[in-house]
Specification:
43% of the residues lie in helices and 0% in strands. The chain contains five helices and no strands.
Length: 121
């Protein structure tokens, strides 16, 4: 996404034909190292298209992505406890299973393919 953003910033600044060095300079201004291969891929994908067309295509692709976490099923209890815990409490055996902690993957600017969520594939 950072490469696409740098490309768009360059076009908005009046550069109708940004190159790798332009994108590298924009990213470098905020402390991000530029991968020239990824920058060139964005440039090639945008070549011959106007900015409005690029944004329209990207918006279509972004709208197909999931927009959040999993939904929580509604339970009949009003106390805020999960239905299973409420049922166990009614039976007299209030058993709680230990919660499993998931390791969250730290977001990093260096990980993954940061090309714009498939906008330029």
């Amino acid at each position: 996404m950072r490469y696409a953003a740098a490309y768009v910033l360059s076009v908005l600044a009046g550069n109708t034909n940004p190159d790798v060095s332009t994108i590298s300079k924009i990213l470098g201004s905020v402390g991000i190292d530029c991968d020239n291969t990824k920058a060139q891929k964005v440039i090639d994908a945008c070549k011959g298209k106007d900015l409005e067309q690029i944004i329209a295509e990207g918006s279509k692709k972004l709208s197909s992505l999931p927009a959040g976490g999993g939904a929580v099923a509604a339970s009949g209890s009003t106390g805020g406890a999960p239905a299973a815990a409420t049922t166990d409490a009614k039976k007299g055996g209030a058993k709680e299973e230990p919660k499993k902690e998931e390791k969250k993957k730290e977001d990093s600017d260096e990980e993954g393919d940061d090309m714009g969520f498939g906008l330029f594939d």
